[in-house]
Amino acid sequence: MKRFYDVAVVGGGAAGIAAALAAAECGRSVVLIEDYGFFGGTATISGVQSYCGFLTSGPHPERVVAGMGLRVLEALQAFGHPVEPVLQSSGNWIILLDPERLKVVLDRLVLNAGITPLLHCRVIATEGQNGHIDALLCSHPEGHLRLEVGSVVDATGNANVAAMIAPHSIRPRLQAATLTVRIGNVAPGHAPDREALHAAVIDYQRRTQRHLARSNGGYFVPLPWSGSYWAMMIDVDLVNTDAHYLTRAEIEARSIAHDYLESLRRTVPGFEQAILETSGPQLGIRSTRCVTSLLVLMEN
User: Fold this and answer.
1) What keywords tag this UniProt record (predicted)?
2) What's the rounded Cα separation, in Å, for the pair 85 and 67?
C-alpha cells in the first residue's frame, strides 16, 4: 500500500464521496478514510434515508445540484434504484434512499475512480505545523498506520480533523442529535396524520412524565420498496461528542423510541401491531462544533 497520497479525504459520506471523486478526476492520488465498514455517511450510518437539496422547494422545483451528486444519482438509477423526487409536507423535495443499494453503488464509484478506500480506519492524530497537515496517524483493527499527505479534506461532518490540527479555530455549535428509526408492520393505507400523532405525543408525555422534543409527533415517510416507514421522531440534547455524552444520548434515545412506539400503537390507526425494525445504527449528529474559516463564501 502507498504511504503518500496527494489528497486524503476523511469521512465517506456525501461530501467525502464528492470530494474524493472530484480529486481523482483531476488526476490526483486519493485515499478515502472511513470509520465504518461502508460509505454513505448519515444515509447509511444514521438511517437518514434521503438526499435533500437537489431541488428547490415549492410547487415548481428546479435542479440546483449536479456534478458529483448527480453522478451518484445516475449510478443509483443504473443499479435499479428509483431517484424520482418526493414532495414533503414541508414543501421540500427529497430523494428516498435504500441504504443497502447505496452502499454498493458508492463502493463501485470509489473503486472505478481509482481511489484507495480505507474502511474500518479512523484518524487519531495529525502531524504538521502552522495549520498544514503533513501526515495522518490512523487506527485500524491491526494497529496504527501513518499516511503522508499533500492535502486533507475534512469531511467528517463535525470538524474532527480540523480540531486536531487547529483547535483554536473551532467554535461550539450546539444542536440536538436525532435518532432515526424504521417502523414496520403497519396496516396498508394508514399514513399517520397530525391529529393522531398529537394524540400519541400527549399519551407518551402522560405515561412517561417526560417531554417529547418533537412536539408535532415527528415525520413519517413511507418507503416504497419495503412498505415500512422511515421516521424522524426522537431528538436528544448532545453537549459534545465525548464518549460519556454520546453514550448517555444513545441510550436515552433508544429508550424514548420504544416508549413512543407504544404510544403510536395506542393512538394511531393502523399502528396497533407496529414494530421497531431498526434504529440508527447511530445518532444523527448535525454538528457540535464549527471551523472559523479564513474565507466565507456566500452567494446572494
Assistant:
1) 4Fe-4S, Iron, Iron-sulfur, Metal-binding, Oxidoreductase
2) 18
